[in-house]
Amino acid sequence: MGGGSSMEIPQDGIQALDVVLRHSTIMSAVSDRRCMPLARAIFYSEVDDRKNTPSLGGGAEIWFGYQQSLQLAERLLMLNIDLAAAAFVSAQPALDFVYQAAGADPRTPGTFQGQQQRKASKAITGIKVSTNHLVSKRSHKVKGLSKHGAAGDFSEQDGRTVSVAKYFGTKYGRLRHPGAVCLNVGSSRRPRLIPVELATVCEGQRKQKPDGPQTAKMVQESAGGPADQQQLISDFRMKLSMLQNDPTCHALKVKPAETPTVVDGHVVEAPGLEYAQGREEHPRQGAWNLQGKQFKGAAAFGPYAIAAFGNEHHLATSCRPASTATRCRGLRSPVSSLCCWRPMPLSCTKR
Length: 351
What we know:
- By secondary structure, the chain is α+β, with helices and mostly antiparallel strands.
- It folds into 3 domains: 11-89 and 209-251, Alpha-D-Glucose-1,6-Bisphosphate, Chain A, domain 4 (2-Layer Sandwich), CATH 3.30.530; 94-202, paz domain (Beta Complex); 273-328, no CATH class.
- It contains 8 helices and 18 strands.
- The protein has helices at 11-30, 94-101, 115-124, 164-172, 212-222, 226-239, 247-251, 312-328, and strands at residues 35-38, 41-44, 46-47, 50-51, 55-57, 60-73, 76-89, 128-131, 139-141, 144-149, 154-157, 160-163, 181-184, 193-195, 199-201, 205-206, 273-274, 280-281.
- Strands 1, 2, 5, 6, 7 and 16 form a 6-stranded antiparallel β-sheet that branches. A 3-stranded antiparallel β-sheet has the order 9-8-15, with helices on one face. A 3-stranded antiparallel β-sheet has the order 10-13-14, with helices on both faces.
- The longest helix is centred in the first third of the chain and has 20 residues, at 11-30.
């Protein structure tokens, strides 16, 4: 616009187009069981018709996906794709999931003891499973585990008490593992028990609280190189090509480009560090080498004391190397003398 007037950015229009694109993408993804929309992201268990879910251990796996957003650029709109990753529960037999969570061998299932029972019950509670002993599969949310195996748990049937193993064995065939625990899909007051071997963990369930090793494995799997991330973005962009057949996008004449936008740039040279005696060091592989170098204009600090209530040998092995390292780097510190104070035991007398 001329005449010194400023052009207003139609944020409401950009937001409307962003909502249309996200809604059309999610609606096309809902029909595909291999993907799961979650908040502002869409995750896929398969990318480019290949399995793409590395295992995290403990019955969990990682799904990769993306978040899309519209950004206003010079004379055009840019569709921004950001990679995302999340932990999901692995689709597998419920027997394997429960016994792996308890640290037991699923090949010889039996009842749990103490800590195993608590770990397995905590892992399976809230997980949705589907039964495979009926013609039409039904899904249930697990409320907990039984304390005994199917051969030891009983239920009322036609006014008489029978074991869960005998009930399911009579109606659907003999159980392979009658000593394994049962899943409670009812409530604590009115339990509904299903043998764990007759259930399968449903696919596409978010792992709510990954533990420490699972989180570390997620970070390791997500830290791919630029070439790997570019290939993954290209695979996800191919899935957006289905928007060309979406009636809403067609009516608004929204059509994502087939190739990514190329932006010119340059690599900024990493700065160097100057050390004592005019020595200069440049980073190598993202780090500066400090071996044999002292800081330029290093500071000095006064006397200090360390109070330790323990063994004098442990104090010396931990403090003296630190004091030596500071002097090697040029930091002026006084020579420290170590002393260990041992408190006297208190004695109590009755009056």
